Amino acid sequence: MGDKSFLKSLGLGGDKRLRFHIRTQKGKIIRFSVQLELLIENRWKPVVRYDNAHDFPHRDVLDTRGNVVEKKLLNLGTLHEIIEYAEQDLADRVDWYVDRFMKSRGQK
Predict the structure, then answer these.
(1) Is the CB of residue 69 less than 8 Å from the CB of residue 49?
(2) CA–CA dist 33, 78 (Å, integer)
(3) pLDDT tens-digit readout, 39-71
(4) What is the largest CA-CA distance in the chain?
(5) Residues facing 16 on adjacent strands
């Protein structure tokens, strides 16, 4: 079993990033998470997470306490394809997700 974790910065401000965790077994992806995080008051907060916890791939939108406020089942193909989709979606819509998150905490 192989675990790989890494971070990818989004934008120029250094306050948004993607956190990846991928677990493989015999070269096949068996677990993954791709999480958009925002730096607020020197702490990284999860905003949106794609993963396959609970044995099905889905997207969780989180509130400022880390609670899931929206869960969407994903039926997009292989786990590899879902990871690529997640990365693209979070990178393309980072400002929208962050704006929505900040509004939920009463800030913009």
Answers:
(1) no
(2) 14
(3) 999 999 999 999 999 889 999 999 988 889 999
(4) 46
(5) 10, 38
Separation between Cα atoms, residue 59 and residue 48, nearest integer Å: 7
Q: How far is CA 45 from CA 19, 28, 41, 55, 74, in A?
A: 11, 30, 10, 24, 23
* 3 state SS for the chain: CEEEEEEEEECCCCCEEEEEEEEEECCEEEEEEEEEEEEECCEEEEEEEEECHHHCCEEEEECCCCCEEEEEECCCCCHHHHHHHHHHHHHHCHHHHHHHHHHHCCCC
Cα gap 47→45, rounded to integer Å: 6
Structure tokens at 41: 């008051």
Verdict on whether the full-model pTM lies above 0.85 = yes
